[in-house]
Design a protein that fits this description.
Number of domains: 2
Structural class: alpha+beta
Strand content: 15-25%
CATH class of the largest domain: Alpha Beta
Length: 420
RNA sequence: GGACAGGUGGCUGAGUGGUCGAAAGCGCUCGCCUGCUAAGUGAGUAAGGGGCUUCCCCUUCGCGGGUUCGAAUCCCGCCCUGUCCGCCA
C-alpha cells in the first residue's frame, strides 16, 4: 500500500514508477474516487456535527426538565438522520473502491534499481567461490545414497512432494539447526517459531492477498491458510502496534515449512526438490528506521551470504531489475547458489526492502520520541536460506569420486558424521 | 466441544443511556520546590481522518449490526482471553 498523500500530490511520479514494474497503475481512477470519498467524508462530518449539537442540546434541556422543548428538538432530527444514512453509504462505498484500487498498486522501485522487464536484465553484482563443474544431479545422488524417496512421496501426497529418508532427513534437520544457530549467534537475530497457518488478514498485511490467492493453500471450513513463507506470520507479529524505538531494529529469524501451490510450474526446473509444494526455509525479517533501511538491506544480504560462505558454496548475487522483482518490493537482491549437477544457479534467497509498504498494510509503527507522531517502520526480509535448494547445491558440489558426500565442516557436529 | 467470567488510552483500572474520548493510579514530557533522595508539587500526555490549520470538526472504549434525538453503557451476531469440565498429540 502506498501513501495516499504521495498519490494525490505526485500522481505522475507514481504512474511512472509503477510503469517501471510494467504495471499501469489506475492513478486517475484513484484520484477521482478519492475526490468523491473526501467530499462524502467531509459532508458526513458536518452532518454528524450538526446531529451532535442537537443531541447535546436535547441532553441539556432534559437535564433542566424542559421536556417539551426537548421533544420539539427531537422532531427536527428525522430528516438529518436520513441524510446521514445516505452519506454513510456513500462514504463506505467510495472507501471500499479506494481500498480495492489501492491494493492493486505495486510498491515503487527505488531509484538505484535498474530498468528492465525480464530476468535477463537483472544485474550480477557479486560472485563468490569457485564454480565446480560436472557432477551427477541431486536426484541421482539422492537415490544412490537413499536420501530422498520421491516415489513414495507421490503415493502419499501426489506430485511435487518429497520424503527425506535416513541421512537425507538428518541433513535437512542439520541445515535448519545450523542456519538458525548461526543467525542467532553471529548476526544478532532473535529466533521465533511461528504458526504455519495464518488468517486472511495476515496475508493481506504482507500483500499475498487479495492478488495471489491462487498461489496459496486454503483450509476448508476455516479462515486459515498454509503459509507460503515465514515472512507472513513474522511480519504480522507486530501488526497494529507501535514499536519501541529503543528496541529497533527488530531482527527476527524463523524456521518454518512453507507451502506453495506453484500452479503452472512444470518441466525441467522442477526436477527433484528444486520446486516442491512444501519446503523448509529460514526467514530473516527486520523492522528498521526508514533512514537506515537501505543499509539494513545490504547487511541482510551479507547475513544470508554468510551461510553460503560458511558452507563453501559458489554463488552469485543479483540486483533485480524493476520489472522482475515483483509487486511488493522497492529493491531486491537474489542469492543464487551454483548447482553443478543441474548446471545452473538456483535461487536460495530473495532479500527485499519493502520500505513502508507492508507496515502501512499491517499498521506497524514506531515513535521517535514521547509525544511525537508515530511513523511507519520499514520492513525487510530475506531467506536465510531455503533448505532444499541448498541441499541440492551441497550434494552436487561435495560429491566425491567414490560417490560419497563430504560434509562441510560447520555441519559435521549437527550431522554426527563428516561423510554420507 | 460445554459452562461461567471478561475484553476500556503506553500499562493497571473505574465507568450501566446525555458536557465521557473517558475518573484514579503507573509510566512519560515540561516546569517548580528541596543542598544530596527511585521524595514532594503544578501542568501536559490515545490514534486515525478532514478543514477556513496557533484553532475547529468527524470517527474510534474487541469486531460487525441494531434500538435511540443521543450508546463504553441496552439488544443481536461474531472474534479473542481467562477459569473449570470434557477430549486429545
Amino acid at each position: 500500500m502506498l501513501d495516499r498523500k504521495l498519490i494525490r500530490e505526485n500522481p505522475d511520479f507514481v504512474k511512472e514508477a509503477a510503469l517501471r514494474k510494467g504495471v499501469v497503475a489506475k492513478v486517475d481512477e484513484f484520484l477521482g474516487t478519492d475526490t468523491l470519498w473526501r467530499k462524502a467524508t467531509h459532508e458526513l462530518g458536518e452532518a454528524n456535527a450538526e446531529m451532535n449539537r442537537i443531541s447535546k442540546t436535547i441532553g441539556q434541556l432534559m437535564g433542566q426538565g424542559k421536556k417539551e422543548e426537548a421533544d420539539a428538538a427531537k422532531s427536527q432530527t428525522a430528516e438529518l438522520k436520513a441524510r446521514i444514512k445516505e452519506l454513510e453509504e456513500d462514504e463506505r462505498f467510495h472507501e471500499a473502491e479506494l481500498c480495492k484500487l489501492e491494493l492493486t498498486f505495486p510498491n515503487l522501485p527505488h531509484p538505484s534499481v535498474p530498468d528492465g522487464k525480464t530476468p535477463e536484465e537483472n544485474v550480477t553484482v557479486k560472485e563468490w567461490g569457485d564454480k565446480v563443474l560436472a557432477s551427477k544431479n541431486h536426484t541421482e545422488i539422492a537415490s544412490e545414497l537413499g536420501l530422498i524417496d520421491f516415489e513414495r512421496a507421490s503415493k502419499v501426497t501426489g506430485s511435487g512432494f518429497a520424503v527425506y529418508t535416513g541421512l537425507g532427513a538428518k541433513l535437512q534437520r542439520a541445515l535448519i539447526n545450523f542456519m538458525l544457530d548461526f543467525q542467532v549467534e553471529h548476526n544478532g537475530y532473535r529466533e521465533v517459531a511461528p504458526p504455519a497457518l495464518v488468517t486472511s488478514q495476515s496475508l493481506v498485511g504482507t500483500g499475498n492477498l487479495p492478488k495471489f490467492a491462487e498461489d496459496l493453500y486454503k483450509c476448508e471450513g476455516d479462515d486459515l491458510w498454509l503459509i507460503p513463507t515465514a515472512e507472513v506470520p513474522v511480519t504480522n507479529l507486530y501488526r497494529d502496534e507501535i514499536l519501541d524505538l529503543i528496541d529497533m531494529p527488530y531482527k527476527l529469524a524463523a524456521y518454518t515449512p512453507c507451502f506453495r501451490r506453484e500452479a503452472g510450474a512444470a518441466g525441467k526446473e522442477t526436477r527433484g526438490i528444486q520446486r516442491t509444494h512444501q519446503f523448509d526455509k529460514i526467514e530473516l525479517v527486520k523492522y528498521v528506521l526508514p533512514e537506515w533501511s537501505y543499509e539494513e538491506l545490504e547487511s541482510l544480504v551479507t547475513d544470508a551470504e554468510d551461510i553460503l560462505q560458511a558452507l563453501g558454496l559458489h554463488y552469485r548475487v543479483l540486483l533485480l531489475c524493476a520489472g522482475d522483482m515483483g509487486e511488493k518490493g522497492c529493491k531486491c537482491y537474489d542469492l543464487e547458489v551454483w548447482a553443478p549437477g543441474e548446471g545452473r544457479y538456483l535461487e536460495v534467497s530473495s532479500c527485499t526492502n519493502f520500505e513502508a509498504y507492508q507496515a502501512r498494510r499491517s499498521n506497524i509503527r514506531f515513535r521517535r520520541a514521547p509525544g511525537e507522531k508515530p511513523e511507519f517502520v520499514h520492513i525487510l526480509n530475506g531467506s536465510g536460506l531455503a533448505v532444499p535448494r541448498l541441499m541440492i547445491a551441497l550434494l552436487e558440489t561435495y560429491r566425491q569420486e567414490d560417490g560419497s558426500i563430504l560434509i562441510p565442516e560447520p555441519l559435521r557436529s549437527y550431522m554426527g558424521t563428516d561423510v554420507i
